[in-house]
Amino acid sequence: MSAYRTDVKIAFQNAVCVNERLFPFNIKVMSTVELKLSLHQLIDGVSDNCVLEAVYTLLSKATKNQEDDCYNILSEEEKVSIERGLDDLKAGRVVSHEAAMNKISAKISRLKND
Fold it and tell me: Which pLDDT score, from 0 to 100, does residue 20 have?
């Protein structure tokens, strides 16, 4: 988990603990659709501009960092490896999943028999 996501999670947990009147609900596991619907309903019920600005800022930062989040935590070696893989894909230097599994199975069989 990136430092940004950890900070957001901690900030949210602290906000829930410190000010339960702003978040008078039990957090449960929901699907993405359920979460979005619940968020819309909660936001529609908030009249405190300060709270709305905080939610807006949080969501704006999350949206901005969403695409970069995973890529930013990769090492340079990992980024280069990904680029090489993408280049291989574009050049057609690929092996099907079935062919790879057949090759792996054959290798395992040989190792077991040795």
Answer: 47
